[in-house]
TrEMBL record:
Residues passing through the membrane, by range: none
Domain of life according to the entry: Eukaryota
InterPro entries for the chain: DNA/RNA_pol_sf, Rev_trsase/Diguanyl_cyclase, RT_dom, Viral_Replic_Matur_Polypro
Top EC class of this enzyme: transferase
Matches recorded under Pfam families: RVT_1 (PF00078)
Upper taxonomic lineage: Eukaryota, Metazoa, Ecdysozoa, Arthropoda, Chelicerata
CDD domains assigned to the protein according to its UniProt record, in alphabetical order: RT_LTR
Protein name (Swiss-Prot/TrEMBL): RNA-directed DNA polymerase
Amino acid sequence: MLKPYYKRAERVNLLLTDKRDQEVEENDLEIDYPETHHTEINLEEIIQASELKGHATEEDLKKLRKVLNQHREVFSNEPGKTDLIEHDIELISDKPIRCKPYRTSPRQNEILSAEIKKMLDLGVIEIGESDYVSPMIIVETIGREPRPCIDYRKLNAITKTQYLPLPNIEERVERVAAANYISVLDLTKGYWQLPLTKRAQRYTGFATNFGCYIPKTMPFGLVSAPFTFSKFMAELLKGSEDFCVPYLDDVAIFSNSLDEHIKHLDVILRKIGNAKLKIKPSKCSLGRKTVKYLGHVVGNGIRSPVEAKIQAIVNFPAPKTKTEIRRLIGMIGYYSRYIKDYPKIVEPLTNALRGKNKREQITWTPECQKAFDTIKG
């Protein structure tokens, strides 16, 4: 999914790459920590944020409050832990992986130490030893806070990969866009809500300069994690396909009437609660006419690009390397349906990618500049 463009830091501690079938975004590897303090969830704030009060009757709001109160335990800033599935890892090699921790500065060690404490407090990791150890490191990018991640590239290289096609984004966007009322739920650190088997715990050990730790729940960055999570969510929400579609840890509920929508919301919250999963309250969008969903603004039969994504393209500087051209094409390709004659317009840029060395300098022709200006204009 597209992100606002920032010039990258000149030096980073880790290059995040995965040479499998699909690109892995930084968010798939980074650890975005939930709040670790217990807070009372204000359901009225969720209703206020839903914008329902502008077009719902008092009777409708009463029904919604009843549904939310019945399932209030589902809303939490801390991840839950399901007992319906465990993520397992099967290797194609029995040779252990023992990676040394990356060198980190005193400031980075302070950040890592604080985040490790949070993970221990949440119970998603424990102190331990393993013959399989991957390094943990800080990723620093201009425009964002320093983020910790675990570099599982060596483990992924010897992992027996399970393939499950990810849901078709275009099909999901079209279905949700046609609805009159839409809710989007975001699981609180979805991956962390799935426990690991003992074997997977052994394989996913990680090290810092101040100790070795064993994950108890599914960490970010594992090559088969999207497979496990997608399969689990599809099974969990089976029978609700006519009004609910999951995409990893995002769950969209869509209906034609508000009364119908409240009933659908009740069904999905019950399924999520029965699975002992938790939803992030601040990321809930309930009963809206339009929502941001999978990089689009959708609802009431319309769809359009997200403004921030458009600005990311507008602000993108003229590419100087093949890598930068690929990044640009990836950004505009996501919105290609909105660009008339897209294949013809982008052809000079794709032609500039010819050659074996993907990082070599390119020849920026007048045709490339014209294509670049047309796309941004």
